[in-house]
Amino acid sequence: MAQPMVNSCCRCFSLRSGSIASGVLGIILSIISIILIFTVRIDFKTILMDWLPQNVVKIIYALNLVMTILISLLMIMGVVKKNHYFMMPWVVLGLMLAIGLLISVIYNAVVYYIDGFVLGGTLWLVVGLITVVIYVYMWIVVYSYFVSVKNENDRGRYSKQPYRR
């Protein structure tokens, strides 16, 4: 049986509360991002497919954010119902997003440095790495609750022997 990595969220909240907060925050940030994608004039760039038209890139980002909302809703439902199967997609996606976020932060900081924007690159690196650390911590909270629920479901909710005379 795997052990949870942490026993509480921020040392004062339960793993359950931290997991729900992570899901709700993911939904809120995704909705805000979708609104910003279609209302603010930003020139989106991709690392590998820089030939795609801006509208296509915006739609791809928006679809990814919609999927994040759906997976976050599924994770919240898993937390409420204590069903680790509902939480699993968020745990897997969260780990991939953490890796992608780290790569994105480093890539963008390097681009800023190459273009001669030392202050921009440094700010991007510092703020980005702080964001990565917070994101990874929240992933650890959800993963820890996932492990706890999985362990509980594997052994059964009531693992003690019934009382016998």
Provide an overview of this structure.
This is MARVEL domain-containing protein. The protein has helices spanning 15-39, 54-81, 84-114, 118-155. With 165 residues, the protein is mostly helical. The protein has one domain (15-154). Helix 1 (15-39) packs antiparallel against helix 2 (54-81) and helix 1 (15-39) crosses helix 4. The radius of gyration is 20 Å and the shape is globular. The model has no long low-confidence stretch (mean pLDDT 90). It is built from four helices and no strands. The longest helix is centred in the last third of the chain and has 38 residues, at 118-155.
Topology:
Layout: H1 15-39, H2 54-81, H3 84-114, H4 118-155
Helix pairs in contact: 1-2, 1-4, 2-3, 3-4
Keywords: Membrane, Transmembrane, Transmembrane helix
InterPro entries: DUF4728, MARVEL_domain_protein_3
Organism: Anopheles atroparvus (European mosquito)
